[in-house]
Design a protein that fits this description.
about 325 residues, 11 strands, disordered C terminus, Rossmann fold, three-stranded antiparallel beta sheet
Amino acid sequence: MVEPVFDSQTKTKLGSVNVDIKGPSMRQFFSDFLSKELDNYLHKNPSTAEALKKRIEQSERERKDMAGIKKLANERAKKANLHNKKLRDCRVHLNDESPSKGKEAFVEKQNATTIFITEGDSASGSITKSRNVETQAVFSLRGKPLNCFGLTKKVVYENEEFNLLQHALNIEEGMEGLRFNNIVIATDADVDGMHIRLLLMTFFLQFFPDLVKHNHVYILETPLFRVRNKQETIYCYSEDEKAEAVKKLGSKPEITRFKGLGEISPDEFGQFIGEEMKTTLMGLEAGEHIQDLLDFYMGKNTPDRQEFIINNLKVELDAPVETV
């Protein structure tokens, strides 16, 4: 720009001292440059151009599909949020404005904000009673959520449960308004629990992959066994840990197998969702493509998936019983 000056008192854009100076503006310069270079690039890379074209057409179809239901779904969600029995909210949220005093302590709380997504009211009972109401919220699912693989984002608005979850997280318009720093999937340690976990992971990867890319989604690890005697209690997360605990305590200790989260008392559960909470980050390996992952694990390639499961199957057996 020739003789640049700030255009206004807010100093958000530049103007020129001499308005009579002729020549292209910066906006026009960048517009012409991008138009020319992008056109050249797409002609030289037809596969990229085709992929971009398909994505644009897909977005157009999604906008048209959602046009009729988005307003109705949002109104329904707003009404539900006022009396949403499925969400036990917390007091502090990631998108809250920091106070002028005690800012560092408040930011620390914001970073600790967590929402637990559980299966059913019974499973969420222990978490709800033992959680930190300042920073931990609970969202209860009604059994197994919908398998959304291959569906468009229209389903997020048509499915009441997904729509309520979307509004609880406040991610409809993007990541900027996210209300919780940590999204923790908390399901039972059984086949149904693993299935629900897979369906939720599919939901996030399909419609909100940035949550995964920016390390916001976790899996809650809860103990499988409680081994105890009158003097000591040990919580175990695997068969190996259970065997070590039995060996340590000796003299036939009491062994409890936790199948569901509802079986763990609130007093006990408080130990597993506190500062030393064990979680597994839901992340992506370098070079992994989300659509390829979903196609393989959730697609119709049953024979390939079956072979993969057989080749990677791990069977944990109880420790052998010693005989005399």
